[in-house]
Specification:
The complex is a heterodimer. By secondary structure, chain A is an alpha+beta fold. Helix content of chain A is 17%, strand content 46%. In chain A, the strands form 2 sheets. In chain A, strands 7-8-9-10-11-1-2-3-4-5-6-12 form a 12-stranded mixed sheet. In chain A, strands 13-14-15-20-19-18-17 form a 7-stranded antiparallel sheet. Chain B contains 8 helices and 1 strand; from the N terminus they run ααααααβαα. The longest helix of chain B has 21 residues. Classes of the chains: A alpha+beta, B mainly alpha. At the A-B interface, helix 2, strand 1, strand 2, strand 4 and helix 3 of A face helix 2, helix 3, strand 1, helix 7 and helix 8 of B.
């Protein structure tokens, strides 16, 4: 009798201890959690200017409503982001502005979710092991290790029951930590619980409509903007073109071409003549881009390279080495070559 | 779109408050229409300069002066001298508004002369890059959201 009840229980426990397939965990973290929750978390970024930590209060209700309060060091509200799943609003109290636009939705991308996962698995080795508890929850540790040099690894601590990423570590190419995110408190709520989408904005705050990002093919971008996208002939191994967004600035258009390896993003901005790139107060240095002169900077989002060629201004952004960005830049064809 | 259709939309376009379809359509029209482009540029310049001017303050005792004036005029005809003075006296606030308009006009003129290059801030670039990164399957959403928003200086 004891044998009949004990053996299945032992088998169940043994199976639960075996990590699931990495593919299953990847699919889990890609989809929204099935359960409402509220949480407090800390995000720490290590940048050229030092280490900055922010606390975030987060309320989530499925399928995709949320309220993110990003707090300054003194606990005051630095930014507020709310979304009902369709419309997203950013409130910046210091500038008295609310930016309103469509919520981010990867379903509009040209590359489907399964194709993107395939690209990820081609370029990264995904492994799952038992992870340390985070915010009192047991986790699986998902690690993404690049299969080729020139990329950085990532680690995620994933809630075993609901697939929520409770902790993450992003590394730089030199293996130094770039950022850490950690849930400090997690309270699971009842399904159907509504998120408070109200913005406590005082009088005088203005709302600006933000244009929705597009996911255009080359021909569509040319038709809308009148500009020929100049796509690099060389990309780092594993990177491929995904789509273009046309960003209107008055009567000028900026093309934002996006490339990815399934995990990381490389952005190429192509600007019309006489549009300058303002680096603000960031540290920058002069570099050579082929025969042209360019400007490079390092940011939390990765390296930035700006230069002019053929009367247009280009900007590359990505978590790649300066040398790799310069090689991409040098492979961008001239205007007359693009038109062939 | 014809100019007659575009002109009523220019104000909303300048403020970034038109719908995305209108923004695109107006943007395409502006690429090939000098007059509408010039009107937009003037509109944006005046709006920007007026909003940066200090708010005029009400002169002390103005309300009482206006009430006294109304009482005198309701009771009797103005004297020759009052009539003469009233033709030169501007309504309250008009003097300040005139000065603002002249100042704005001058600023528009000088801005028009120096117009030509525009600047794209690195923060705007990073914001567009970060918003796309949010769509990736293994996106670290909390880290990305914590870094978004405050960087945008202009509406992209």
């Amino acid at each position: 009798m004891i044998f009949k009840t004990l053996l299945p229980a032992l088998a169940t426990a043994a199976l639960a201890a075996f990590p699931p397939a990495a593919q299953d965990v990847l699919r889990q973290i890609r989809t929204s959690p099935p359960q409402a929750y509220s949480a407090e978390l800390t995000v720490t970024r290590h940048g050229a200017a030092g280490t900055v930590s922010k606390r975030v209060r987060l309320d989530f209700s499925p399928p995709s409503s949320y309220r993110r309060e990003i707090l300054a060091a003194d606990g005051s509200l630095e930014r507020l982001i709310v979304s009902d799943g369709k419309t997203e609003r950013f409130y910046d109290p210091s500038r008295k502005i609310i930016r309103e636009g469509e919520a981010v939705d990867p379903l509009y991308k040209r590359l489907g979710p399964d194709e993107e996962l395939e690209r990820l698995e081609e370029n990264y080795e995904a492994s799952v092991a038992s992870g340390a508890d985070v915010a009192g929850r047991s986790t699986w540790l998902l690690e993404l290790r690049p299969r080729a040099e020139g990329r950085a690894r990532r680690r995620f601590w994933v809630d075993r029951k609901n697939g929520l990423v409770l902790r993450s570590e992003n590394f730089r190419l030199d293996e130094a930590l770039a950022s850490v995110m950690r849930f400090d408190r997690l309270t699971l709520g009842k399904s159907g619980a509504a998120v408070n989408l109200a913005i406590p904005a005082p009088p005088g705050v203005r709302t600006i409509k933000r244009l929705e990002p597009d996911y255009l093919a080359l021909e569509e971008a040319r038709s809308i903007s009148g500009m020929e996208a100049r796509i690099p002939s060389w990309l780092p191994p594993g990177y491929a073109f995904e789509s273009i967004d046309v960003i209107q600035r008055g009567r000028k258009a900026v093309l934002h071409s996006r490339f990815s390896d399934g995990v990381e993003v490389l952005s190429l901005f192509q600007c019309p003549p006489r549009m300058r790139l303002g680096f603000g107060g960031r540290l920058r240095r002069r570099v050579k881009v082929g025969s042209a002169r360019g400007t490079a900077a390092w940011t939390e989002e990765g390296s930035v390279l700006g230069w002019s060629a053929g009367g247009q201004r280009f900007i590359l952004v990505g978590p790649l080495s300066d040398e790799t960005l310069r090689r991409v830049a040098a492979s961008i064809p001239r205007a007359q070559d693009s038109a062939r | 779109m014809k100019c007659e259709t575009v002109r009523p939309l220019l104000a909303a376009y300048a403020d970034g408050e038109a719908s995305s379809a209108e923004m695109r359509a107006v943007g395409r029209h502006l690429e090939g229409c000098g007059p509408c482009s010039l009107e937009l540029r003037w509109m944006a310049a005046v709006s920007g300069r007026l909003s940066s001017l200090p708010e005029p303050s009400m002169p002390a005792g103005l309300t009482e002066k206006l009430l006294n004036l109304a009482r005198r005029r309701s009771g009797s005809e103005p004297s020759f001298w009052e009539a003469l003075r009233s033709t030169w006296r501007m309504p309250a606030g008009a003097g300040m508004a005139s000065a603002m308009a002249l100042g704005a006009g001058f600023l528009v003129f000088t801005r028009f002369l120096s117009a030509g290059s525009e600047e794209l801030s690195l923060n705007e670039v990073l914001s567009a890059h970060g918003r796309y990164a949010l769509t990736m399957p293994a996106a670290d959403r909390e880290t990305l959201y914590a870094g978004l928003g405050a960087e945008e200086e202009d509406d992209l």
